[in-house]
C-alpha cells in the first residue's frame, strides 16, 4: 500500500439525488475509504456529465438514459464511455453495484488484472419474481445470472446471510459477508417530535411510517392494506409515507378512495426531518420482500421505532427482537398490534439497542477487507 493508499473506483447504476439506501451506502463507504487513507472514485449515471470532489471522494457523472416507469432511475447504458473512463482512472480496485447491465466490468477487470468486487444489493430471483416470472423460472434465471457474476468477479460481497444464500446454492466460493451500517449519531430517538404527530397523524392515536421507494418490488400497497385492516379492527391508526416513485399516484388515489388517513410526503431530503418522522412514529412498516439488508428499516430502529418487515426478506434476521415479520396485510396488522402491546419505552429501547449492532466503521472495515485493502490504522503498524 502506497502513502496515498489504493484507488478504489466504484461504479453504480440506479442512483439519483432522491434515491435511498444505495445512495446512502455509497456515501458512507466512500467517506470511510477516504478516512482509511484510500482514494475513492464513484462513477454514476446522470442527465449530464460532471466531475466533482466531495467528502466521499471524487464523484464522476456520465450521461445515462432514464429508465421509463422507474421514477428517475438512470443507467450507464453505453459501455465505451465507461470503459474509456476506467482506462483513464487506472483503478487499483474495482467495486460494482449492479450485477445486470454492469456485469461486463468484471471481464474488463480480469483483462486489466484489477481485483474486482461485485456488491449484491438485491436478490436476483426475488427481483425476477416481482417481474411476474414463476418461482421456478426466476430461480433458474437467477442461478444462471449468479454463476456468471461469481465467475466474473474476484469476490461477491453480500450484506446478509439471506443475500448470500442464492450464491451459496450454486456453490460459489468467492462470497464474503459485509453488513452495512447506520448513522447512530444523526439518527436517534431524541428526534421525537409531538408536533409532527399532530401535523401528519390525522388526529389518530397510532402513527405508522413507511419509508420506501414507491415501486412494485417494495410492495407499498401492503402498507395501505395493513392500515385498512387495523382501522377495521378498531385501531385508530394513520400512516405517513416518506418516499416517492412510480406508484405514488396510484397509492394516493387508493388512499383517497378508501378514506384512509395517509400523508404522502414524497422524498424527504433533510436527514434531520426524516429522523424526526421515524422517531415520532410508533411502528415502521417494511413490506419489501426482496430487501437484502434494508437501510430504511435500520434507520427506523436507530430512531427507536420497531419495524414490521416482510418475512420473505433479509430483514427479520436484522431486526431480531426489535420488531416482527409478516407476509400478508392481515399479518402486518396483527404484528403491529403485538408491538403496540409492548410498553413504548421497552420497544423503543429494544429498537435502538438492535441498531447499535450495525455501525458504519465496522461496515467500512468489512468492505475494505473484501478488497484486501488496509485501513489507515493497519497500514501504520
What is the straight-line distance between the termini?
A: 12 Å
CATH architecture of the largest domain: 3-Layer(aba) Sandwich
Helical percent range?
Answer: 40-55%
Output the number of helix runs. Answer: 16
CATH class of the largest domain: Alpha Beta
Number of strands: 14
Describe the 3D structure:
- Helices cover 42% and strands 19% of the residues.
- Helix 8 (220-232) packs across helix 13 and helix 11 crosses helix 14 (344-355).
- The strands form two sheets. Strands 3-4-2-1-5-6-7-8 form an eight-stranded mixed beta sheet, sandwiched between helices. A six-stranded parallel beta sheet has the order 11-10-9-12-13-14, sandwiched between helices.
- Helix 3 (104-111) links the parallel strand 5 (93-97) and strand 6 (116-120).
- It contains 16 helices and 14 strands.
- The chain has helices at residues 21-35, 79-89, 104-111, 124-130, 135-152, 161-168, 194-200, 220-232, 248-257, 271-280, 295-302, 315-319, 329-340, 344-355, 360-370, 376-379; strands spanning 7-12, 39-46, 50-54, 57-63, 93-97, 116-120, 155-158, 175-177, 206-211, 237-242, 262-266, 283-286, 307-310, 323-326.
- With 381 residues, the protein is of the alpha/beta class.
- It folds into two domains: 7-181 and 359-379, Glycogen Phosphorylase B (Rossmann fold); 189-355, Glycogen Phosphorylase B (Rossmann fold).
Amino acid at each position: 500500500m502506497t502513502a496515498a493508499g489504493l484507488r478504489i473506483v466504484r461504479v453504480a447504476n440506479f442512483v439519483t439525488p432522491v434515491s435511498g439506501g444505495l445512495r446512502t451506502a455509497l456515501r458512507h463507504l466512500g467517506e470511510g475509504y477516504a478516512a482509511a487513507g484510500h482514494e475513492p472514485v464513484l462513477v454514476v449515471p446522470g442527465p449530464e456529465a460532471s466531475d466533482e470532489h466531495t467528502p466521499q471522494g471524487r464523484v464522476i457523472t456520465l450521461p445515462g438514459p432514464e429508465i421509463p416507469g422507474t421514477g428517475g432511475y438512470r443507467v450507464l447504458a453505453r459501455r465505451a464511455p465507461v470503459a474509456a473512463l476506467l482506462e483513464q482512472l487506472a483503478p487499483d480496485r474495482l467495486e460494482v453495484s449492479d450485477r445486470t447491465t454492469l456485469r461486463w466490468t468484471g471481464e474488463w477487470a480480469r483483462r486489466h488484472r484489477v481485483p474486482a468486487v461485485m456488491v449484491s444489493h438485491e436478490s436476483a430471483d426475488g427481483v425476477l419474481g416481482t417481474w411476474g416470472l414463476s418461482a421456478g423460472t426466476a430461480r433458474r434465471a437467477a442461478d444462471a445470472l449468479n454463476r456468471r457474476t461469481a465467475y466474473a468477479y474476484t469476490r461477491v460481497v453480500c450484506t446478509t446471510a439471506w443475500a448470500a444464500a442464492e450464491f451459496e446454492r450454486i456453490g460459489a466460493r468467492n462470497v464474503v459477508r459485509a453488513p452495512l451500517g447506520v448513522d447512530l449519531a444523526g439518527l436517534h430517538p431524541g428526534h421525537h417530535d409531538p408536533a409532527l404527530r399532530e401535523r401528519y397523524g390525522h388526529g389518530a392515536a397510532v402513527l405508522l411510517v413507511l419509508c420506501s421507494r414507491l415501486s412494485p418490488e417494495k410492495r407499498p400497497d401492503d402498507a395501505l392494506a395493513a392500515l385498512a385492516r387495523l382501522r377495521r379492527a378498531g385501531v385508530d391508526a394513520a400512516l405517513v409515507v416518506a418516499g416517492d416513485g412510480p406508484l405514488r399516484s396510484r397509492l394516493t388515489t387508493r388512499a383517497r378512495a378508501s378514506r384512509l388517513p395517509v400523508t404522502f410526503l414524497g422524498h424527504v431530503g433533510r436527514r434531520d426531518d426524516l429522523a424526526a418522522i421515524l422517531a415520532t412514529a410508533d411502528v415502521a412498516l417494511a413490506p419489501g420482500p426482496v430487501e437484502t439488508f434494508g437501510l430504511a428499516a435500520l434507520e427506523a430502529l436507530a430512531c427507536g421505532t420497531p419495524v414490521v418487515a416482510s418475512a420473505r426478506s433479509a430483514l427479520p434476521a436484522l431486526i431480531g427482537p426489535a420488531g416482527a415479520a409478516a407476509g400478508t396485510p392481515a399479518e402486518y396488522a396483527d404484528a403491529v398490534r403485538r408491538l403496540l402491546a409492548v410498553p413504548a419505552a421497552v420497544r423503543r429501547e429494544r429498537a435502538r439497542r438492535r441498531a447499535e449492532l450495525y455501525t458504519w466503521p465496522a461496515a467500512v472495515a468489512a468492505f475494505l477487507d473484501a478488497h484486501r485493502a488496509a485501513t489507515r490504522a493497519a497500514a501504520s503498524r
